[in-house]
Write the structure tokens for this entry.
Amino acid sequence: MQETISDIKTKSGPKGRPEIDPEICKGCGLCIPSCPKDVLSISKKTNSQGIQFSEYDESGNCIACKNCAITCPERAISIYKFVEEE
Amino acid sequence: MSSNTRIKEQLIMKRPDSMFEMKNHYCPGCGHGIIHNMLGECIDELGVQENTILVAPVGCAVMAFLYFKMDGCEAPHGRVPAVATGIKRVHPDKIVLAYQGDGDLLAIGMAETIHAANRGENITVIFVNNANYGMTGGQMAPTTLPGQRTKTTPKGRNTSTEGFPIKACELINTLEAPVFIERCSVHNVPNIRKTKRALKKALENQIEKRGYSFVEVLSMCPTNWGMQPVDGTKWLEESMIPAFPLGNFRDRGAE
Ligand SMILES: Cc1ncc(C[n+]2csc(CCOP(=O)(O)OP(=O)(O)O)c2C)c(N)n1
Ligand code: SF4
Ligand code: SF4
Ligand code: SF4
């Protein structure tokens, strides 16, 4: 994510991203309707247990609202917020 | 703006520090996991991890203490409040949590539930209401809704032979001693946040030695409800909440 600081200032650039652990995810899908930006979906890929896990679409539209992580019964999701650093 | 300004990634949400980095044994979409996470966050924020003892029930949460970096104890089916009472009286400075399902708390453990509440034990009871016996395969619980199909009510709960759902908060609200009684739900984000606030107040009451707190959480059991997890959240909202209205029944900590 090599966005410029002005992207954040003008609120047009990415605000953050979810990091989903595919091995912890059970593919329940509860995170998907909890996301106001509709950027999560169940992957076609499977983890080592054969479970289709939840995936971020890498669209850059995540606003780091934390809804998905709050909803996830596994807390398979961590949220990173993009902040400016001197 | 200096030219060397960079975007840094700041971790703003992860697994609570008081919980182990591991997969839980609950079914996909089970509400127990959400409730555990909210409890873990409260314990982190209150800084009481080192001082807390979790008493687990018989039911799907039978191994709940495995997930927390805290001391734990397993109680026989229904006896969680009795075991928690014993621990609290011997260790009055520990924070003692009684975590129970609806079969545990309202069926086999009804006597222990009512009397611990009536004595005003300084413990925090977390009551997970998923309208059936989860662990044993979905039999009728005292909280099963009228007409709800379960393994033991295949034609739906018949109120003339099986009675009506027991409303735990309303029942405990008839007693004098409890200081905090609230019913919450984990079917969507706003309600999960409210659940966390209620759990935190219930823990603060115990820390401040105010007395008995009871938090009922309506929780999904998609496996035994025979539903996809997302459908489970809708069923909870449409069917359970009208029967078990959400809200605070008593908050003497705030008085
Ligand atoms: C003395 C005794 N009676 C019965 C059982 C069988 N049993 C195990 S779990 C359970 C009920 C669990 O339901 P609930 O308390 O609602 O918890 P859930 O699994 O739904 O979270 C029963 C009856 C037992 N283990 N011990
Ligand atoms: S943090 Fe919010 S916007 Fe980002 S993926 Fe999760 S729910 Fe969607
Ligand atoms: S809520 Fe958690 S476990 Fe369920 S699909 Fe989303 S990331 Fe996976
Ligand atoms: S049976 Fe129900 S309560 Fe038990 S783990 Fe599965 S979904 Fe959760």
The pocket of iron/sulfur cluster (ligand 3) is lined by residues A 20, 25-31, 53-54, 71-72, 74, 76-77 (CB under 6 Å).
